[in-house]
Design goal:
The structure is a homodimer.
Chain A (H helix, E strand, L loop, with lengths): L1 E7 L20 H12 E2 L2 E2 L3 E7 L3 E6 L10 H15 L8 E2 L4 E4 L3 H10 L3 E5 L15 E6 L6 H9 L3 E3 L8 H18 L1
Parallel strand pairs in A: 1-4, 1-9, 8-9, 8-10
Antiparallel strand pairs in A: 2-3, 4-5, 5-7, 6-7
Helix pairs in contact in A: 1-2, 1-5
Chain lengths: ~200, ~200
């Protein structure tokens, strides 16, 4: 099982944005959409063993389950439309429970702490992808891994502290600093190689 | 130096498409836009040593030079807008020479054969990324590599024959079948590792 948590620091909390301006008025939602693509898509297929958690401004979390999701297409605009629907669904719901939006997509009033709590309770080990850390290529990885990535901005100090409280491993994807979606594609490929070898 | 050639089998040859429907009426232009992103972007930077060739229906080629390109943003829509501009620029130009569209982007009435001819004349070795071939991870790679990928459809028999005429190496990116943009992200990461080690 693989999980990817992506922190959207400027991502919208309500559905009042236009699909025609994802990088601007939708707070770089294009970045999150590309992360969803990189996490879940194979060529003409979906990764059924992957869950994606989009944490929006540490206030809302949209979870996309590879096992259950339907109507997900690879392009940014249609993924953003599914996110918009999830934001419409949560708008008048004030509890902290998960609300189903479209098949395989839920939304809740949870932040990073709650998502980490949920995943670590299921024996996922959080892995923090940073520059200038040990390469994750050669190193041991637990069976259940939850990779945590930030959007186009750096992790905040508070986020880093929280991740270390949850005993996140710090690893690096490579010698350059990559966009989050590229990191996810590389991580998935590395895990595929390991799955094949095991 | 790295080059990526991406074959768009249904990509538009004229600018009469809407940016609101890249996967549909624009012939899966979203796939090509994600490939441009994967080939050229680092986090908050561009790869200056990369050139991308989008070969549209084997009739037009749009070349994006990492060294010279300006106004390129990571999202699909704005990349598609640059492609649209290039298609406007070539519409009334009937020669086979390269026409400059926006800074770092040229367009020409060339197909795969001409692009391969141009690159191999500059000592690039074409590498054909296919499933079920030898993994490119452990193998020797020439200094100048031109990776050739297909969009959401398979290579045609004619394309495969042409690539073998140009002595393309056949290699595989991993044990799964990946979207072209994921392959590019993985290839760039692998080459970064090699550059660091050399």
């Amino acid at each position: 099982m693989r999980a990817f948590i992506i922190l959207g620091h400027k991502a919208p909390l309500n559905p009042d944005f236009t699909l025609n301006d994802l990088p601007g008025s939708a707070g770089r939602l294009d970045v999150l959409c590309r992360c969803v693509n990189a996490a879940l898509f194979l060529s003409h297929d979906l990764r059924r063993d992957v869950e994606v958690f989009l944490v929006l401004q540490d206030q809302l979390t949209i979870c996309i389950s590879g096992q259950h999701v339907k109507r997900l297409n690879p392009d940014e605009r249609s993924t953003a439309a599914l996110i918009k629907k999830a934001l419409e669904r949560i708008q008048h719901h004030h509890g902290s429970d998960d609300v189903r939006s479209t098949p395989g997509i839920t939304v809740s009033r949870k932040g990073l702490k709650q998502v980490l709590g949920y995943l670590t309770a299921q024996r996922f080990v959080p892995i923090l992808l940073l520059e200038n850390e040990r390469s994750f290529r050669g190193c041991f990885l637990p069976e259940r891994v939850a990779f945590v990535l930030s959007d186009h901005t750096d992790f905040s100090e508070t986020e880093l502290e929280l991740l270390l409280e949850f005993e996140a491993l710090k690893l690096s994807v490579g010698p350059q600093i990559y966009p989050a979606s590229h990191c996810i594609a590389v991580v998935n490929n590395e895990l595929d190689h390991r799955d094949q070898a095991s």
